[in-house]
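tool_call: predict_structure(chain=1)
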Amino acid sequence: MAQLTIWDLYDLLSQAPRRRDLEQDGIRLVYDGRAVHLSTAEHPDTVIAAARTCGFVTGSWDVTAYQASVATVMAWMRMLDRKDLIDVSPFWASAPPRSRSPLPAGRPGHSR
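tool_result:
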């Protein structure tokens, strides 16, 4: 995970090429422990933009995000206080997880 201000992440994502400019329609985010770097999926070694992280440091990671999910996240971030910190992780751009709430043990009709 990496922590950036909402403004820094918004600014980073706004520098991604638009849909018609991407062959694969994907961007790549790489976190190296100090900053999140933005490149395209088809040219992962060409850094377009970077944003320095703040807060705690974790292990490095990379993830490919697709333009549709990036546009949705950016729309959501416009409603937030841009000075607040936001967590960005390698799971941020993946498909939404299926949530399961474990039922308490011993509940009639349900087994664990």
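agent: Residues 22 and 108 are 53 Å apart (CA to CA). Proceeding to next step.
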